[in-house]
Amino acid sequence: MNGNSRKTAAADMLLVLAFGAIMYLPWLNLPVTDADTAYYTGAARGVVNSGDWMTIRGSGGDLLDKPPLSIWPIALSYRLWGESDWSTRLWQVALSIGILVLTYLSGRRFFAREQCLLATLILGTSLLFAYCTMVVQQDILNLFTYALFFYAFALFWQTHSAAAYYLAWLALSLSFMNRWHIALVIPAGVVLACVIAVRMLGRDDFRIATLFGSWRSALWRTSFGLAIFAVVGGTWYVYEYLHLGRPFLDLFFGRRNLAFLQAPGGRPLSWLSVTYLPQLLLATVPWVVFLPDAVATGIDGLRSARRARRTREVDGLLFSSLWCLVAFFVPHVSAWRVIRYLLPVLPPLSMLTAVSVTRKLQEGKRFAVSAALGAVITAVFVAIDAYLLFESLDATMRPYRGLVLPFLLMSTVAFAAFTVAALWRRERLAIVAMVILAVASYSTLFASVSYKWDQVSPWRSFGLATRAMLQPDTQLAWYRTSGMLPYGVPGEAERVVYEHYAGRSVPFLGDPSELRDLVAQGPALIVMRDETLLSLLDTCPGIDLKKIQTHSTGWVLVLANSEARSR
What we know:
mainly alpha
């Protein structure tokens, strides 16, 4: 690489970093909205409080059935900067920006600079990627390890570098430490698919002599790679088995960790449960308008690998297409249709989309299909906007209107602007408008969540009020109710978010006798439904129940104490 190339690469890296920072860093302090995030933060808090960084437990003290790699960064953030929304999310946003960088670097092994820069913009503004960046779970860390592995794989494929080979093993070991054996399926599947495809083409890219020079060198390098995997990926598992014994084996090798293969009970079979296609359409918004072009480019890449003269671009299309196919079909093994499982599809799909777009721009072709899809999607968004604007919603759902409507309106503008520019034969303007308005749409959504979430959900305000009132003898509890709410039966999901902000484990109560026993031990802060409070006022004489906070959704935070102690 000459001096000019290094300067260009450095400038591109700064552009990617700047884009990621502008897109996500201003919103680090968004409230925790997801029970899974609270589940991980509770475990991280336990790590910091106990000082035990090896045996990970949930907020209730039970062993966590997940490896620790996704817990440790949160715990480290809490140890360094204390518990806050921004320290919870900081490491994940940093990893998301790292994924954009690795996507650019992987793409540059095969494709032109403009295509790789566009691919990072597409990936960074895809709906599923934006969602997973702001909702702390295992998925972004898992995608980072995949992106690191596939960058190392591409580098090793082209240069046969020992460092790239060892980097691939390191990435695999990190995946193993994050999501156990399940995380190895997609990398292994993509490598196997590439080896089979190249061998079917009659090429010798993946022969031992080509990659390593000799069988002896292959044996030594692979032995060292396995040693890296064993030390980095396996040490914690061995330690926990020696420390915990059979309970650890039951937790990680038992039926619970195979539950993803079991069919969800009571759910009728439909085409929605057979395919991930509807989720893919949603995951790729707003770039779903280019999905047919991206698929066509992938198919063309598979065909050109057989017909065309070998070039880096041909190899890149083959690699991206196979990665995309494997990452899309592997989640179908699970009986659950969880949109987050499609996250590994997005980097190669973004690259295929960028290649298809830049080819059309270079060849002066129209965005005919994309414009038609943009018009259809614009009409759908207009209908949704009209419904939310003019339909009378009930009291519990009304706060959500103010939360999502600004995002939907801005997204409508984005699709409409793209469609008009594409029909007007201003294709470059259409792309620029889509990028800028997509960033504006997400900024609008994140701002709405930041400022309006407490109108939708009481758990942050309840939790912070609880933490401010906590005394050494104060107990916490959640009075269980069996009544249905518009979004289901209240329980575990809401409780863990409240625990996150309260900073303590919150047990369930189920009847007035349990309440009397709890209050006999000292004052208690209790979350319950408003109608439950009215009932308890009649059935629990001798207990002073004082409202601390109420919420429009019908939840109330109550200070319970014996009347004698209250005096």
